[in-house]
Each structure stands twice: as structure tokens, then as C-alpha cells.
Amino acid sequence: MKIHIIAIGGAVMHQLAIALQQAGHIVSGSDDEIFNPAKENLEKYNLLPCEIGFFADRITPDIDLIISGMHAKANNPELTEAKKLNLDVLSMPEFIYQHSKNKHRIVIGGSHGKTTVTGMIMHVLRLLNKQFDYLVGSKVVGFDFNIKLSNEAPIMIIEGDEYLASTELPIPKFIIYKPDVGLINGIDWDHANVFPSFENYLEQFKKFAEMVPSDGALFAVDEPIVRKILDEAQLKLTPIFYKTFPYFVENGHFFLKYQEKSYPLQIFGKHNMQNISAAHKICEYLDIDTKDFCEAMMSFRSANKRLEKLYENKNLVVFRDFAHAPSKVRATIDAVREHYPDRQLISVFELHTYSSLNQNFLPQYSKTMQNSDISIVFYSKHALEIKQLPDLNTIDIIKAFDQQNLFVTTIVNDIQNIIEQYIKLPAAIVLMSSGNFDNWELNINTIKEIVN
């Protein structure tokens, strides 16, 4: 097939392009912005568009299928041309469903932990030599790609994002996947640009739960808000609730506990123990023994940008994390604080999503960074322009976060300057963003020179 992907630069979309090319299809694509690692990956496979932007003349009658990402707006010239030519157009979730409709679809939902839980399940299945397809939002250690599409695998593990599928199909992705097995790993308001109230956001998870068939399975974290929406939903089956997997911490290291045996982990944080419990429920459903599960978890390492360790020596450790919603920011900071209780903690957070750049949503971040010794919030004027959002006032951001030792800047190089001015070793630095800090990178060598 000849396939053209609109918004090919996305984290998943560019991986889908590579997977389709590897499967023998002729693939092209377009986007108005493409950053690394997508840019390098597309270039490696000769899929990087020769010119950045969307152009109607790229859409020709011989294209068999258009796959459109959420980044493609309704007035996108390529979408308009595709409609004129009456070409088949699918959103990414629709395409994934079409591929997997004869497989057993296990969809991992929730406001946080989706990528990590999906990655944990993938890790266990791979170690136990199980056949499966998958779709995950970030690179998982041990896997070359974010997506695998095959004819042979009987199941597909899907990270189920609640965000909208596309401008043409404005419903949550996880509903389009039509789960045979669903999981909800916590709910905290997010994506305020498309779900303007918490009640509206909750409704999406209720619809997701209601889609799970009577011969399937529905797992959910045992939290009051999750129980409330499931009590109100018209479910076809009884949900199975889970709590945090038994664990203990010794000298800052986390261990799972099962049948009087301990299993040392490479990951840390209470939120990750909840993620492990979610992954365990799915693996248990797939007839995987708990002992085998715990042994597999000993070698699991964080997915890309999920408390990913960038640097470490005896006095300094630097992490990168995808945290962007309020609950995710708090959980990430609390995890690092718990792991390094005696170190100075410097937390850096980029406002990058539509929600975080929405002045009305900002108060949701109140005191989310207060467990840090130094907190830095950065936002890009360019990001506001791209998202066509009104400017933000620094004073309003400071009021919204409502805490001490908070710095707010729109100049990305200020981050380095503030860190260099206030750092005291031993220290832990955590960089949190769903974007890329305008391509800025922390200069660790400069920090080492200053403190020495």
C-alpha cells in the first residue's frame, strides 16, 4: 500500500511510519515541526519530509490510505485535498483498531502511569517469550520501536490515551480501541483544552469502562474517584480493584515482597509500586505466575523520559521525566525526594501542554513542587504561539504554584544559571516536560566545574 501520514513527527506517529515501511508499505509524511528523536529516526529510515510543512500537492490519487494525527487541524491543506480526492482517511487509533480487531486487545488507561505499566507488561511478556503486538507512547528498554504490528500475535497491548483521536474524530483514543480488557490506573484532570471540566473528563473514563465486554476484564486502582465513576457506570462486568503491590524500602532501594521473598528493583517511587500492581493484574490475567512476574520486574528499567537517569556520580544525579499534569509532577518529585532524602532537590518543570499553558488550569499546580528545595518553571513564548494561546503572566504562575523558592522564566538559558547559582552538593536534579525545553540541554560539566 501507498500510505501518507499527516503529522508524522509525533512520538507514536513517526514510529508507526517506520513500522509500516518495515512491513513493506510505501510511506510518506508531513509535519510543521519535527524534533529529535523523531527527526533522527525518520532520517535514518529515509522518511524525513524534504520540506517542513503541509502541502496539498503531496496528496495524489494513487495514495491508498491517509493516516492523520491529532496535530493535524481541521483546515489542514492535505486533509482538505484528501477529501476532495475521496481518499481513505483514518486516525491513528482507527488504524490500530483495524489492525488488531481480530486480536485480544488489552488497553491500559488512566491519567498517569500508562507508558510505564504498558512497558512493564511488554517487558514481562518478552522475557517469557510470549507473542504479542504493542503500542506504547515512549521507548521501552529492550524494544527497538514503540509499536509492533504482526499477523501472528494473538494479543495486542495498547497504551490507551484519553486524548482525542483527531480533529475529524474528536473522541478519546482509548474508546476507539474497543478494549477486550481495560485498566484504569488513576484519574486526575488533564487535557483541559478538550475536557473543560473535571466532570467532562471523568465521563470519558466512564465510557471507556462501559465498553469492556462481559467476557472481558476490567481492572482499576482502588481509589475513591475511580470507584465512584465505576459505581455510576453501566458496566457489563464486575471490576477488579487493586492496591499498591507489597514492597519495602531499604537504604533508598525498593524491593517487592512476595511469599516471604524479596525482589530488588531498578526503579523507585511509590507511584511505580502502584504501576507494578497494575501490570501484575494484566499479567495474572494472561496466566503468568506471580513469582515469574516478580523475577521479571527485577530487570525492568524505566521507559524513556520516565524517571530516566541521565547522569550520576557520587554527589550528583540527574533525571528526566515526562511529567506534565499536576499529579504527575507531584508524584515524580515525591519519588525522587523519597529516594534521595538527604540531598538537595532541584526540580525543573516546563509548561508545555495545552492544559499547563491555560491560565484557568494553572491553579491545579498549587504546591505540586513544594517538596523541592529549588523549583524552576519554564514556559516558551513560541509554544504559546504554536498552540494559538494567549500570553501568560509570570506573576499569575507564581501565585498558582503557591510555594517558596520558586523561579519562573521564559528564557531557557536561565534554567542553567539558576541551577549553577543555587546548587549545593550532594544534589538531585529532575527535569520534567512533555516537550523538549526548546531543545535546551543541561550542561552537567559546567555544574561540576562550579561546585568543584
Write the layout of secondary structure elements.
Layout: E1 2-6, H1 13-22, E2 26-30, H2 38-44, E3 65-68, H3 77-84, E4 89-91, H4 92-100, E5 104-109, H5 114-127, E6 133-135, E7 147-148, E8 155-159, H6 173-176, E9 181-184, H7 198-211, E10 217-221, H8 224-232, E11 240-242, E12 247-250, E13 253-258, E14 261-264, H9 270-285, H10 290-297, E15 308-312, E16 316-321, H11 326-339, E17 344-351, E18 374-379, H12 381-386, H13 394-401, E19 406-409, H14 413-422, E20 427-432, H15 444-451
Parallel strand pairs: 1-2, 1-3, 3-4, 5-8, 5-9, 6-8, 9-10, 10-11, 16-20, 17-18, 17-20, 18-19
Antiparallel strand pairs: 6-7, 12-13, 13-14, 15-16
Shape estimate: globular
The structure class reads alpha/beta
The major sheet is characterized as: 7 strands, mixed
CATH architecture of the largest domain: 3-Layer(aba) Sandwich
Question: Largest beta sheet: what is the strand line-up?
Answer: 7-6-8-5-9-10-11
The radius of gyration computed from the alpha-carbon positions, rounded to a whole number of angstroms, is 22 Å
- Total helices: the number is 15
Describe the 3D structure.
The structure is a single chain. By secondary structure, the protein is α/β, with parallel strands linked by helices. The chain is built from 15 helices and 20 strands. It has 3 domains: 2-87, NAD(P)-binding Rossmann-like Domain (Rossmann fold); 94-297, Mur-like, catalytic domain (UDP-N-acetylmuramoyl-L-alanine:D-glutamate ligase, 3-Layer(aba) Sandwich); 308-451, Protein-Tyrosine Phosphatase, Chain A (Alpha-Beta Complex). It has helices spanning 13-22, 38-44, 77-84, 92-100, 114-127, 173-176, 198-211, 224-232, 270-285, 290-297, 326-339, 381-386, 394-401, 413-422, 444-451, and strands spanning 2-6, 26-30, 65-68, 89-91, 104-109, 133-135, 147-148, 155-159, 181-184, 217-221, 240-242, 247-250, 253-258, 261-264, 308-312, 316-321, 344-351, 374-379, 406-409, 427-432. A hairpin with a 3-residue loop joins strand 15 and strand 16 (316-321). The longest helix is centred in the middle third of the chain and has 16 residues, at 270-285.
